[in-house]
């Protein structure tokens, strides 16, 4: 059983991957997508989106990181996959699932799900361009407007030589509206022998168990669930092994949030330092009442000074409350 961290664009960057994998339980990460058009990108683009390349393509705590490419032209996708491999990528993932209209309008992401033959050409060209020792994988949805082409999509990607396939159990038209249709994944196992990783709406160990039962998938990818509960992967593995588990409490999660803020102070322009923690609090407040309180306290603050003061006040209040 493996648990993967989803490549959430604009959210799960290198610093977030480092924080979440340090908690434990995550077996693989995938970068935010590298947008491929009609040219070979410079190496600096890959190093910026995947600084883990300088650490053996692993997070500081040792979790493997795959580089994800997004594009609709087989030639450039293959050339850039080969470059990523030469830079030290230990796996290349392909984004056929992004639902964003701005991406779909430019022949990228989930719009390609209406063209299984093109998916075959893209994966096949990448597979031939990358050493066999480096996995080439893909991430899709059930389809674009509906799931009528799901078997054709899975067969095309499998026959093209992909090593594994993650399926977000909703169509592009479904967006992120519950539920995720995990049962739809069960039928694809008849048409491929490659591993299928289930994705979508796993917020708890109970969801994880139900997802695996309905999808017949051994492995699962977590996204928003891990952002809302940073120790969710660790809890899932503990529960699965029959061990008792005490969920991570707010003081430990607050330390992660403060680490993210320190990183923002060091690497973001002053006017942007609050963005990352406000974004993460938007997920954390689903599980922590303290996160809701802190979010309401800082949501209108913008300067580093005001944000630092608010975090310190919140920390002091929590310390008094715990005494």
Structural classification: alpha/beta
Q: Report, as a whole number of angstroms, the end-to-end distance.
A: 40 Å
| Low-confidence region ranges | none
Report the sheet-strand fraction: 5-15%
What's the architecture of the largest domain, going by CATH? Alpha-Beta Barrel
Taking all Cα atoms into account, the compactness measure Rg is 20 Å
| Order of strands across the main sheet | 1-2-3-4-5-6-7-8
**Overall average residue pLDDT:** 95
Compute the number of helices. 13
Query: How many β-strands, per DSSP?
Result: 8
Textual characterization of the structure:
- By secondary structure, the protein is of the alpha/beta class.
- The chain folds into 2 domains: 3-240, Aldolase class I (TIM Barrel); 250-322, Bacteriocin As-48, Chain A (Up-down Bundle), CATH 1.20.225.
- 43% of the residues lie in helices and 13% in strands.
- The protein has helices at residues 14-23, 43-49, 74-86, 101-104, 116-129, 150-159, 205-215, 224-228, 232-240, 250-267, 275-284, 289-298, 304-322; strands spanning 3-5, 28-35, 65-70, 92-96, 136-141, 164-168, 196-199, 219-222.
- Strands 1-2-3-4-5-6-7-8 form an 8-stranded parallel β-barrel, surrounded by 5 helices.
- Helix 3 (74-86) links the parallel strand 3 (65-70) and strand 4.
- The two termini are 40 Å apart.
């Amino acid at each position: 059983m493996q648990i993967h961290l989803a490549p959430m664009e604009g959210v799960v960057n290198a610093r977030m991957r480092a924080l979440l994998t340090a908690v434990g339980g995550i077996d693989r990460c995938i970068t935010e997508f590298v947008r491929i058009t009609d040219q070979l990108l410079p190496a600096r683009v890959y190093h910026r989106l995947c600084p883990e390349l300088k650490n053996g393509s692993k997070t500081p705590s040792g979790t493997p990181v795959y580089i994800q490419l997004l594009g609709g032209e087989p030639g450039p996708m293959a050339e850039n996959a080969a470059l990523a491999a030469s830079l030290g990528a230990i796996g290349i993932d392909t984004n056929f699932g992004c639902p964003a209209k701005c991406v779909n309008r430019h022949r990228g992401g989930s719009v390609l799900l209406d063209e299984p033959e093109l998916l075959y050409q893209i994966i096949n060209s990448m597979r031939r361009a990358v050493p066999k020792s480096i996995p080439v994988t893909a991430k899709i949805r059930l389809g674009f407007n509906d799931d009528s082409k799901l078997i054709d999509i899975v067969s095309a990607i499998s026959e093209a030589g992909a090593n594994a396939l993650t399926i977000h159990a909703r169509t592009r038209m479904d967006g992120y509206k519950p539920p995720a249709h995990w049962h739809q994944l069960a039928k694809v196992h008849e048409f491929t022998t490659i591993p299928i990783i289930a994705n979508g709406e796993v917020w708890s160990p109970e969801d994880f168990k139900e997802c695996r039962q309905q999808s017949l998938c051994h492995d699962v990818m977590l996204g928003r669930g891990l952002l809302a509960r940073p120790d969710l992967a660790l809890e899932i593995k503990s529960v699965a092994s029959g061990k008792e588990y005490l969920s991570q409490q707010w003081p430990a999660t607050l330390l992660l949030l403060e680490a993210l803020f320190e990183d923002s102070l060091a690497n973001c322009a002053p006017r942007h330092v609050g963005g990352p923690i406000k974004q993460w609090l938007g997920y954390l407040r689903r599980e922590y009442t303290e996160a809701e309180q802190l979010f309401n306290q800082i949501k209108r603050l913008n300067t580093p000074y005001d944000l630092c003061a608010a975090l310190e006040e919140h920390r002091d209040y929590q310390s008094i409350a715990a005494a």
